Amino acid sequence: xxxxxxxxxxxxxxxxxxxxxxxxxxxxxxxxxxxxxxxxxxxxxxxxxxxxxxxxxxxxxxxxxxxxxxxxxxxxxxxxxxxxxxxxxxxxxxxxxxxxxxxxxxxxxxxxxxxxxxxxxxxxxxxxxxxxxxxxxxxxxxxxxxxxxxxxxxxxxxxxxxxxxxxxxxxxxxxxxxxxxxxxxxxxxxxxxxxxxxxxxxx
Length: 203
Description:
Layout (H helix, E strand, L loop, with lengths): L7 E3 L3 E5 L5 H9 L17 H13 L3 E8 L6 E13 L4 E10 L7 H17 L4 E7 L3 H10 L2 E11 L5 E10 L3 H16 L2
Parallel strand pairs: 5-6
Antiparallel strand pairs: 1-2, 2-3, 3-4, 4-5, 6-8, 7-8
């Protein structure tokens, strides 16, 4: 049994639930929108691979290494599954806790909307105010400019680039850009995100 919580986080825009095989059909529809798995610089499951990806993530959850979450848009009056995210690379010691927010993907229909900001606000608020982490990391391919700009818009700072950090499924080497937000930055970042949410609400 996992030592990590079975989280459900929500606000007026979105609900994050612990991923389950009950989410397969919704996630298949979300990944089919735009054929996201064709993006060579990221890892998004194919329609046929969604169930295996949920199972993989839940295996890491049981090992205490990941909290996999399904992203459910609620702002239009009906629940719609639009992607996945997670707390991952979790470090818990007697002295500190830290984690990465990653393995995130969204249906293209909700990209560049209020949704990503609302999701990250929920996760960061939980991490810093309830979980009491000292640092949250974000990692992405150096060449994934869309992801890097989204991370930077949150207010995260670039720590550096890990050269030749991973081998991608297509055999290319990934340079990983590493960003972070620390606990002592959270109040400022929280104000920034809440301001952005209000701006996007009326956009």
